[in-house]
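Obj: model holo form, ligand = magnesium ion.
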Amino acid sequence: MNPEQSSQAILKVVNLQKHYPIKKGAFTKKSYFRAVDGLDFEVNKGETFGVVGESGCGKSTMGLMITQLLEQTEGDIWFDGNHLNQLSERKKRELRRDLQIVFQDPFSSLNPRMKVFDIVAEPLRVHGIAKGEKLREEVMNLLKVVGLGEHHADRHPHEFSGGQRQRIGIARALALKPKLIVCDEPVSALDVSVQAQILNLLKELQKQFNLTYIFIAHGLPSVKHISDRIAVMYMGKIVELADKNELFNNVKHPYTEALLSAIPVLDPFEKKDRIVLQGEIPNPATPPSGCTFHTRCPYAREICRTEQPALMEHTDGHFAACHFPLA
Ligand code: ADP
Ligand code: MG
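Output (holo structure tokens):
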């Protein structure tokens, strides 16, 4: 195990960043915006690390960098004792098996021209792990594990419902027996009635295969049940990070408070003060000075406009980046 990574951690990211060029005229100087702007966190073996934040805050970009599908602009990633930045391409390819992703949209992430059998078999073929009868057995077993049947193997993705397609995506992610799976909003595109089924399946698989999850969602309700710890992101940065119960009971950052108050109250008789977030997410090309949340924060004061708050540990394991954390 790498000495820089604590013993129970399977993943550690340090100052992870992704900058994208902003398209401008041919003769103006190229400029960049920071889709992911310096993430630091560890994920422990076997835990579910929830990541939430509004659309566009950099969640998917983070997931793609961690699973080595997108190169970071800055920063370091340690996984399972290996410093990924320093690995040879061959070793990286090997480690990539252990890092899988389930995408948000089961409609566009599965090749419509391939049969389910080939979609699930592809990673096993690419890595030369199984062929012939053994491959068939493996694929059939994977389909069974995610609640599909052998008769589904010869069909194409369009013959399935959203929930079933996500099961196919999960079978494919499981094929190489990974250690960590990034679940990138795996139920956001599904009917509410099937969301719980897929969440339960993911929970069962986690137990069965000792998986670690990074579970991405745009709202807190979706990560509440599945997560052990939760990181809240705003404009490419983590603004709050804590154990799940601690986060819900003792919120420190005004942005998290706003996200919490946006949870729809199911009981129509329960009236609750809603903090409505003022304004839109600022243009990431021109982020606000100081604390990037100050333009929407009901508590912002002068210092918030000028100084960027650091992510600080307030109580054991509870981090927040705010000049005036909530009591
Ligand atoms: P999220 O998953 O939280 O909705 P993303 O990680 O998809 O956010 O995107 C973060 C920001 O980066 C967004 O502003 C998005 O438009 C931008 N972005 C994502 N991918 C690219 C890309 N390939 N090129 C340029 N900008 C991108
Ligand atoms: Mg996304």
